[in-house]
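Throughout this chapter, every protein is written as a compact record of paired, labelled lines. The reader may check this reading against the record printed directly beneath this paragraph:
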Amino acid sequence: MEKTPSGTSVGVADPYAHVDRCDHCTGEGRCRFAVEQGDRDPEFADARSREDFRCPVVGDLDEEGLTGPWEWADCPHFRCRNRDRECERCGLEERRMAHDDERPLLEEHHLSYADDSRTGEGETSHEITVFLCRWCHAKVHDSWASIDDDANPDPEAIAEREGRRSREQAELGFQSAAERFDTDDESA
């Protein structure tokens, strides 16, 4: 199981098993990093430019699956931040209230951390994140749960989500001006 720098579990043995595609990869299989940020790594950008900016992992789009000569782990600029707004482990959906600073139900969870053998600098080798509800996030970091567990949302998580949903629906309900303002306090 992968570990954080402080030694707690990240909940997976292989972070790349939770990767759909690199954030820098376009729908046409081209590397956006090489095009937009090539000055950060000119050698990498030049190599991609010679191949019409094709992603070396994706390969030929006419073929099924990833057909390139590289794996995601081989790319020096790989990044995959999950954008699904539900818990990867239990499926709890996020409920955010507009103009409210309540603690979110979902938290971003890193699946990859520093790999000194790869970077030599103790920096995150590749950014791979998923969303976990704060209850599953605590269970995973306490080292007794895995992201791949067949889990249901915690009862406390469901109660919190439903409370937010109720407030959201109350906010959308119609209320006349007479109902919103107390007319008994007219002091004129």
The CA atoms of residues 2 and 133 lie 20 Å apart. Confidence is low (pLDDT under 50) at residues 116-120.
